[in-house]
Amino acid sequence: MELLSPAGSYDSLVMAVQNGADAVYAGGNMFSARRSAVNFDMAELRQAVDYCHLRGVKLYLAVNTLIKEFELADLCRYLETVYRLGIDAVIVQDMGVLRLVRKYLPDLPVNGSTQMTVCSSAGVRELERLGVRRVVLARELSAKEIAAIRRETKAELEIFVHGALCMSYSGQCLMSSMIGGRSGNRGACAQPCRLSYTLLENGRQIGKTLPLLSPKDLCLAERMAEVKASDADSLKIEGRMKSPEYVGMVTRVYRMALDGNLNHQDVEEMLRFFSRGGSSTGYFDGKKFRAMMDYDGGAKISADRTMEKEIHSTVRGEIRKRPVSMEFFAEAGKPVRLSVRCGDCAAEIAGETAELARNRPAEEERVRAQLAKLGETPFRLEKAHIFVDGRAAVSISEINALRRQAAEKLERDFSESFRREERKVNLPDLQPLKPEKRKTVLCAQVWNQEQYRAVKTMGIDEIYVPYDLFRTGEYPDSVCVLPELPRQGEKLDLSKAELVMVNHLGQFEQARGKEILGGHRLNVLNREAAEQYADLGVRSLTVSPELNAKEIRQLAASCSLPLEIIGYGRIPLMTMENCVIKSAYRCACKEKSFSLRDRKDAEFPILTQDCRNILLNSCPIYMADRMADIKNLQIDRVRLLFTVENPEMCCIIIKEYQKALAGEEISPPQFEYTHGHFYRGVL
Description:
Layout: E1 2-7, H1 10-18, E2 23-27, H2 42-53, E3 58-63, H3 72-85, E4 89-92, H4 95-104, E5 110-112, H5 121-129, E6 134-136, H6 143-152, E7 156-163, H7 175-180, E8 198-201, E9 204-205, E10 217-219, H8 224-229, E11 234-237, H9 244-259, H10 264-273, E12 274-276, E13 279-280, E14 299-301, H11 305-316, E15 322-330, E16 335-342, E17 345-353, E18 355-356, H12 364-371, E19 379-388, E20 392-393, H13 396-416, E21 441-445, H14 449-456, E22 462-466, H15 467-470, E23 479-481, E24 499-502, H16 508-511, E25 515-518, H17 527-535, E26 538-542, H18 549-558, E27 563-569, E28 572-576, H19 580-584, E29 594-597, E30 603-609, E31 612-616, E32 621-622, H20 627-631, E33 637-641, H21 647-661
Parallel strand pairs: 1-2, 1-11, 2-3, 3-4, 4-5, 5-6, 6-7, 7-11, 10-13, 15-19, 21-22, 21-33, 22-23, 23-24, 24-25, 25-26, 26-27, 27-33
Antiparallel strand pairs: 7-10, 8-9, 8-29, 12-14, 15-16, 16-17, 18-20, 27-32, 28-31, 29-30, 30-31
Helix pairs in contact: 1-2, 1-9, 4-17, 9-10, 14-21
């Protein structure tokens, strides 16, 4: 079972390696989902790869942001370069990155990021089919669910065992993006979830203003027996933005836990060093609601200098070394020779001619003692064969010089053995695949039956109905919108559905044989991702709401699939497995309407589905007054997303958009609204 530690900087990487990590994950200075970490430029990344490999440790590179269309060329060049360095795998979120790596760099292993939100065996199997070697599971899974996924899949599984927990499923959070233009999917999250909020019931405050979206840190160090029983392949520590001392301490504690040498005091010391409001076991035992939450206000940090010094002493000791064997030959009248071997790599150095000893000839034990002095090299002497003929004189300085030169050459050759030959990652020429002018049509997505009945009378081209509603009645010619995220083992009844909207990789297995539309939760920002979904049978795609008008036009010009945008509605900001209502108040989500109010008095409605929450934006996107700009995008559909609107409001909105499509001039609405990212975009 692999222990995988974070490396947000070179110092953190050294700490992780010297405190027992089997592998580290790091980000380069491009396309990394921890943009605020120090990260590695190309020279540092090469040095990091060599440092790890020389000590028997793997390095996985995070290329786990969503990629915009105009960034694809830079991405290709970046992949070509990091591939040659000899990294052990890339961690990816974007399906376009996955497609490019599998097509052009087939021998480079791919790990599916937790940002892919894989929370079912069906999702793992889909990635297996696409050539993914390892899947980093969503943090919301319990031990039983992880074990079930392990039984039903073949790919390697990676799970988080320590570090920060997000309230939202990773990869499904747009809160920082929509509020401040800093996208968590692109490594720039501003963490508005750590701020204080007030829970409202039908507009009335209930309870105190608290950090209601801020979970405690995860800690499974003392649950290692159950963790091992899950049969995951890799145990991941979160923390690329943490200090080197934090990385060293946490790695050491989990190394002891894996090796069976942990005691409670070790864990207490670790949590005193850094923890957010204490710690919890997260979702490992199932949902615990309030027990997971940090309502006391954030991180508790102990600047224990003694502890820091102790951690630093580990690095000075250079614990991690590779064993080497040596052969030393000294015969009077012939050059002294030393060969050093490490695995399949060997280095041989010839020295000066050995002279006849006048006083004291070279002695085997004295030679062995000098050869063993490998100091700060990444090697340790395991065995040595020493031949001296009893007449040869070899000085201490000569032995030291041979040892030093051989170790340096072996280090160079060993590092080079991991390098790969140059390969090109190419993009097809950008040629428009669609006609210049196309008709843009309206479609609508509803949340409840009352909205459906109202929308049905308005002449909308297509209506999207949520799965829980669709399966309970007759909705002819409607699209069945599959749940935001599949649960492990969940079986969908699609017997009545001919058209389905897929929102997650784990839904393709059950949707095959149907006509498939792709929802915005698939996070499509570039043509390679779009073409990957086309290969999976998708007939049209909803583009990510994080794209601006220029970026949507670029995608539309190069994508073979019909495209859709959300032109109206409250964008879902978070999908939460832990019910914020039950955690902060009581189990009452089916009784009333609830929302969260922030420090600026903005109110964010909460939708509920079996204790899973969807947090909506405080105001809807409204684009009817900008329909000319939408038509210039050359996209095929504009979707009106209805959630908390009453039936009358749904009809009013539809009429406005129908008029706008017909060319009538529309005035801005009287209610508060936003244009989303249509004009501004995200970082």
